[in-house]
Hints:
Blueprint: H1 18-33, H2 38-45, H3 49-57, H4 64-74, H5 85-88, H6 95-109, H7 113-128
Helix pairs in contact: 1-3, 2-3
Amino acid sequence: MPLKSEAQxxxxxxxxxxxxxxxxxxxxERRIMLGLSQQQMAExxxxxxxxxxxxxRGINRISxxxxxxxxxxxxVPVGSFYEGLESRRGADLxxxxxxCLELARNxxxxxxxxxxxxxxxxxxxxxxxx
Length: 130
């Protein structure tokens, strides 16, 4: 007779859940907004690139201490990772949200302040046309 897995006998297997995925998505969004690569963030929090990737995908759970450290590195309160949890439940980023995140990441990569200001002014003009 084969042995039953923990899930089959009713015990909770230590796997990521919707909350873990939501927190990972929020970490990724903030990292991209700051223009950091996964490798850079991993180095800042003292983990491997692979571990940072697993955190962002919600594959591995993040301990309270590590989440606090990530919040400090990303310059946000820990609670910000939980914002929108109830309303978002399982929703992925829309194409528009992805585009906005990409725009923010690219904007922070522009080293020339005058170029950043010019792009910002262009966005204001285009937004005013609508």
